[in-house]
Inverse folding.
């Protein structure tokens, strides 16, 4: 069992910009995809955008029920 602790990462998101949230945990650029899923034959990124500039807390534990946003599941 891993001792690694997960916590959301706060990011400033820009209106209408396309983002790719890492779903597989292999990215070195969390919480965003860096293409590492290809080498690991893992799940691809989740593309998303926002309708206004905003600060958001993006999930890094990949257990959220509301991807890409943290829903507190990392505490369970
Ligand atoms: S980091 Fe909070 S639900 Fe994943």
């Amino acid at each position: 069992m891993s001792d690694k602790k997960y916590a959301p990462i706060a990011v400033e998101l820009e209106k209408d910009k396309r983002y790719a949230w890492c779903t597989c945990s292999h990215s070195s650029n969390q919480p965003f995809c860096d293409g590492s899923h290809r080498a690991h034959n893992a799940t691809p990124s989740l593309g998303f955008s926002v309708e206004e500039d905003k600060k958001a807390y993006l999930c890094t534990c990949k257990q959220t029920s509301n991807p890409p946003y943290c829903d507190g599941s990392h505490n369970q």
Summary: DSSP finds one helix and four strands in the chain.
